[in-house]
């Protein structure tokens, strides 16, 4: 099981205005949230950490049993240990069941295990009874729960969530937050969430990573971050003066 | 007017009585076009996959060339294949000129660009988030493209039907490379051309009716799948 992610001197240039330049060391157990203003590089960092996108410089290292795994960007088996749920995850034009089974089929689970996992996770995300329905007919809240279910069914060592409750109503937001914290409580995996919502970061995270203009300004416990941030910039951000 | 009505009545009699010559021509047409469309679909899907997966120099030229070949006149295709398969041609040693095999090749040449161009257009116009989502769930790039292709399957199916419609209705290419030999390479379109030339309209009208029915069924299916593709 992956118990640690290191991002060493990650650099990613998109245009003359934006450059991601940071290092990070994260261990399994607590929930980490990444917060920061629009365009600060939160989602880019998440895509790099999840091995979807290569950095221009620097390296991402997954540690398994205390040992670093070699060449994670080249090894599909390593990248399959992580799952990223994107902001508006696309739902495949297929049944709810097949949407969830997709990641499991890629990992060559047998039919029985796929069925067991799909049915179990459907209950967890409160979509049981809808497995035969075409997923395109789900509401936006249900679609987002389905996106989470696809990830939970895989039971990845690392789960990345990019704005998992963006554009959802308060009820669906609460349901999804409950599902995420419940999964974390049961699994003890690495979980990193990008969020725009400071109340959400406060409610569900143990550690907060504040990123600004591509640089990590602060990484601290949730209470410290919201009550006595160690940098002036973080303090301004908490009070809504940086956006 | 009486002549036309009598011809239609005789044509209907040929269809109802399952006239052996008529059924032979229809069966051969389906065999040739069916076989051609299966091979064309496989080639076109591989082309779509490679074009979507790989970025290489000259890719835009290849896409433009495929789009251009969608409008390739059947007689030109037939003429080129005739020159290639004739005894002194590049592939003359295969001795397939004036056989159903040459007709299958001609129809593959005509159908593949249509299926490839329309399938590729469906894949590239699909939401890019689909491929990204597949990658985030652990798909390799090739698997992600296949997932996108499955997602736009109705559009791809519509392109296959468009290709089938084109080859079932074309006459020029199969006439040149097949030779319209009775009982061997005579298909519906070439038979209609010949019978009309002879002034023997019963068989030509009967085959025309069947061809129209096929066109109707194909277009109904095409419409159905296009609608499903839009609803996805």
Q: What is the number of E strands of chain A?
A: 10
What is the mean pLDDT of chain A? 92
Mean pLDDT of chain B: 93
Q: Describe the global form of chain B.
A: globular
The unreliable regions of chain A are: none
Number of beta strands of chain B: 0
**% residues in beta strands of chain B:** under 5%
* Terminal residue distance of chain A: 37 Å
Global Rg of chain A = 18 Å
* Whole-angstrom Rg of chain B: 20 Å
The main pleated sheet of chain A reads as:
6 strands, mixed
Q: What topology, given as strand order, has the largest sheet of chain A?
A: 6-7-8-3-9-10
Helix-strand string of chain A: EEEHEEHEHHHEHEHEEHH
The DSSP helix count of chain B reads 11
**Termini separation of chain B (Å)?**
49 Å
Largest interface: A-B, 23 and 19 residues
Secondary-structure element order of chain B, N to C: HHHHHHHHHHH
Quaternary organization: heterodimer
Category from helices, strands and their pairing of chain A: alpha/beta
Continuous helix count of chain A: 9
Brief characterization of the structure:
The complex is a heterodimer of chains A (243) and B (232). Chain A is of the alpha/beta class.
Structure description:
The complex is a heterodimer of chains A (243) and B (232). Chain A has 243 residues and is of the alpha/beta class. Helix content of chain A is 37%, strand content 26%. Chain A is built from nine helices and ten strands. In chain A, strands 6-7-8-3-9-10 form a six-stranded mixed β-sheet, sandwiched between helices. In chain A, helix 6 (170-187) links the parallel strand 7 (158-162) and strand 8. Chain B has helices at residues 2-16, 20-53, 59-69, 74-85, 100-124, 128-136, 141-151, 153-169, 172-178, 188-198, 201-231. In chain B, helix 1 packs across helix 11 and helix 3 (59-69) crosses helix 5 (100-124). The radius of gyration of chain B is 20 Å and the shape is globular. The termini of chain B are far apart. The model of chain B has no long low-confidence stretch (mean pLDDT 93). Classes of the chains: A alpha/beta (243), B mainly alpha (232). Chains A and B meet through strand 6, helix 3 and helix 5 of A and helix 6 and helix 7 of B.
């Amino acid at each position: 099981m992956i118990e640690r992610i290191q991002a060493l001197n990650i650099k990613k240039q998109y245009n003359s205005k934006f450059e991601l330049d940071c290092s990070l060391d994260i261990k399994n157990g607590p929930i980490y949230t990444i917060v920061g203003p629009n365009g600060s590089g939160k989602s880019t960092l998440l895509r790099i950490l999840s091995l979807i996108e290569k950095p221009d410089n620097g390296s991402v290292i997954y540690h398994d049993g205390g040992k670093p795994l070699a060449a994670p960007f080249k090894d599909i088996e390593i990248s399959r240990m992580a799952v990223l749920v994107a902001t508006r995850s696309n739902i495949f034009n297929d049944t709810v069941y097949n949407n969830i089974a997709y990641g499991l089929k890629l990992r060559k689970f047998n039919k029985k295990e796929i069925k067991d996992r799909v049915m179990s996770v459907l209950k967890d995300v409160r979509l049981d009874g809808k497995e035969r329905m075409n997923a395109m007919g789900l509401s936006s809240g249900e679609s987002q729960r389905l996106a989470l279910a696809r990830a939970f069914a895989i039971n990845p060592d690392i789960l990345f969530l990019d704005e998992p409750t963006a554009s959802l109503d308060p009820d669906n937001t609460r349901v999804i937050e409950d599902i995420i914290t419940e999964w974390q409580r049961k699994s003890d995996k690495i979980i990193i969430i990008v969020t725009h919502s400071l109340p959400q970061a406060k409610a569900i995270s143990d550690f907060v990573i504040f990123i600004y203009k591509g640089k990590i300004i602060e990484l601290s416990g949730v209470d410290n971050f919201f009550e006595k941030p160690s940098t002036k910039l973080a303090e301004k951000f908490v009070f809504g003066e940086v956006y | 007017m009486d002549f036309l009505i009598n011809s239609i009545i005789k044509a209907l009699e040929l269809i109802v009585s399952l006239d052996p010559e008529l059924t032979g021509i229809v069966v051969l047409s389906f065999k040739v076009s069916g076989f051609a469309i299966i091979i064309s679909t496989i080639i076109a899907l591989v082309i779509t996959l490679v074009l979507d997966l790989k970025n290489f120099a000259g890719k835009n030229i290849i896409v433009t060339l495929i789009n251009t070949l969608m409008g390739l006149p059947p007689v030109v295709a037939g003429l080129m294949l005739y020159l290639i398969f004739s005894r002194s041609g590049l592939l003359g040693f295969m001795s397939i000129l004036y056989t159903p095999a040459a007709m299958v090749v001609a129809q593959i040449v005509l159908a593949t660009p249509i299926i490839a161009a329309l399938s590729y257009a469906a894949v590239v116009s699909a939401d890019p988030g689909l491929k990204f989502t597949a990658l985030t769930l652990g798909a390799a790039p090739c698997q992600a493209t296949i997932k996108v292709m499955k997602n736009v399957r109705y559009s791809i199916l519509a392109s296959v039907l468009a290709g089938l419609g084109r080859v079932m209705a074309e006459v020029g290419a199969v006439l040149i490379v097949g030779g319209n030999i009775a009982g061997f390479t005579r298909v519906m379109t070439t038979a209609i051309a010949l019978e009309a030339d002879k002034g023997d309209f019963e068989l030509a009208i009967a085959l025309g009716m069947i061809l129209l029915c096929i066109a109707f069924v194909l277009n109904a299916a095409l419409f159905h799948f296009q609608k499903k593709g839009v609803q996805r």
